[in-house]
Write a structure and sequence with these properties.
By secondary structure, the protein is an alpha/beta fold. Helix content is 37%, strand content 15%. α2 (54-65) packs antiparallel against α10, α3 packs parallel to α10 (307-316) and α11 (321-344) runs parallel beside α14. The protein starts with 26 loop residues before the first helix and ends in a 5-residue tail after the last helix. The structure holds 4'-deoxy-4'-aminopyridoxal-5'-phosphate (PMP) and glutamine. Glutamine binds next to loops.
């Protein structure tokens, strides 16, 4: 009888597969845990500290009570929500999508990103992404076996800017898709119409697919006409204009540019627009073959989720314009409050044109390493922030930048600023 051969046991190699090994725990979990442990004010993870509209919350309760969505909703999302998403794209942006074949509801934007990349990327494909990049992009590209090719946004004249020549140079015959994010997390940059036009031109010329993450579409801050400094009161630092992006105050979806609709998947989510980040209702819109590809992956990730919440988000999307304007105005005031406070506390501030976030440079405080700075900040000042370096392949390029979230109550922001002034006291 042949001797039994023993195969290597589980201990013989690392438990975590090598595609995920480099990622560790997300910075958001690490920093929110640090805030909880130290009692520091959490300006790290981007979630509002007050819930969205009562009427939307009530709509979710009603759906639960009426038994709508308590069992598996349809794989594509409930028809009411798909219709509301299509109506939103048409009314806001003049983009016509068929709710039957061109809209897919996902478990937050996060699943939309993962499913899109898993569906479209083959091992060896390159994905060109703006750096700093939202952390799930890198992990999802890796899970798909792709290679990320970062194009770094660099600060110039008060704003993080895309170098279009660098973007062009990043595209090779192996490039499968461009992964764009505007308004951009973490820098707060909103790509200008000129930048979007160049991206579109490149995509058409090189016949590339485009995945665009527009979860902050309703958080583009209008600037007063002719503003050169980010508006009254907000000292965003030298030349910070904050309002130069995308038609000042109006989001321009990449899919609206010539030649883009047929090659673009647009991702959004209810989390930021309605201040219910825990509900995790997101969506993808795009042409039928692209949406079908995403569905192929999505059906084996969660299949479906959030039934009753889907009905509530359908109602939320038809809230009057005043709701969306009010949200933007409120957040803009919070942005200005925090920008002013951070400037007074000694940070260099890049006034964001959109999103929940302000990126700062800590070098004026005599610091060089944003990571070390953020780890020490709860102890030194009772505040938690995010080191932008985690969003870079080129850690050196990201080292001095630190991100603060301003989607918090005004009194919380005031207290945070008060504490941060201790750094130079
Ligand atoms: N994309 C960006 C740029 C984000 O900032 C976030 C974080 N909210 C997401 C995607 C994930 O969105 P969701 O919570 O809907 O999954
Ligand atoms: N998008 C949020 C941020 O950038 C966090 C989302 C998460 O915790 N994964 O802060």
């Amino acid at each position: 009888m042949a001797p039994m051969t023993s195969s290597p046991g589980p201990a013989a190699r690392p438990l975590l597969n090598r595609r995920l090994a480099e990622f560790g725990t997300t910075i958001f979990a690490e920093m929110s845990a640090l805030a909880a442990r130290t009692g520091a004010i959490n300006l790290g993870q981007g979630f509002p500290d007050t819930d969205g509209p009562e009427s939307v919350r009530e709509a979710a309760v009603r759906a639960l009570r009426d038994g709508r969505g308590n069992q598996y909703p349809p794989g594509d999302g409930v028809p009411e929500l798909r219709t509301a998403i299509a109506a939103h794209q048409a009314d806001r942006y003049g983009l016509a999508y068929d709710p039957g074949t061109e809209v897919l509801v996902t478990t937050g934007a996060t699943e939309a990103i993962a499913a899109s990349l898993l569906a479209l990327v083959e091992p060896g494909d390159e994905v060109v992404a703006l750096e700093p990049y939202y952390d799930s992009y890198a992990a999802s590209i890796a899970l798909a076996g792709g290679t990320r090719v970062p194009v770094t946004l660099r600060p110039r004249d008060g704003r993080f800017r895309l170098d279009l020549d660098e973007l062009r140079a990043a595209v090779t015959p192996r490039t499968r898709l461009l992964l764009i994010n505007t308004p951009h997390n973490p820098t707060g940059t909103v790509l200008t119409r000129d930048e979007l036009t160049e991206i579109a031109r490149l995509a058409v010329e090189r016949d590339l697919l485009v995945l665009t993450d527009e979860v902050y579409e309703h958080l583009v801050f209008a600037e007063p006409a002719g503003s050169a400094d980010g508006g009254e009161g907000a000292d965003g630092g030298e030349g910070a204009d904050g309002g130069e992006g995308a038609d000042a105050g109006r989001h321009v979806p990449l899919a609206t540019l010539p030649g883009m609709r047929e090659r673009t998947l647009t991702i959004s989510s209810a989390g930021k627009t309605f201040s219910f980040t825990g509900w995790k209702v997101g969506w993808v819109t795009g042409p039928p073959p692209l949406v079908a590809a995403v569905r192929s992956a999505k059906q084996f990730l969660t299949y479906v989720s959030g039934g009753p919440f889907q009905y509530a988000v359908a109602e939320a999307l038809s809230l009057p314009r005043a709701y969306f304007d009010g949200l933007r105005t409120e957040l803009r005031a919070k942005r200005d409050l925090l920008a002013r406070g951070l400037t007074e506390a000694g940070f260099e501030v890049y006034l964001p044109a959109g999103t929940y976030f302000i990126t700062t440079d800590v070098r004026p405080l005599g610091e060089r390493d944003g990571f070390a700075f953020c780890r020490a900040l709860p102890e030194r000042a009772g505040v938690v922030a995010i080191p932008n370096a985690v969003f870079y392949d080129d850690r050196e390029a990201g080292a001095p930048f630190v991100r603060f979230a301003f989607c918090k109550r005004e009194e919380v922001l005031r207290e945070a600023v008060h504490r941060l002034k201790r750094l130079t006291a």
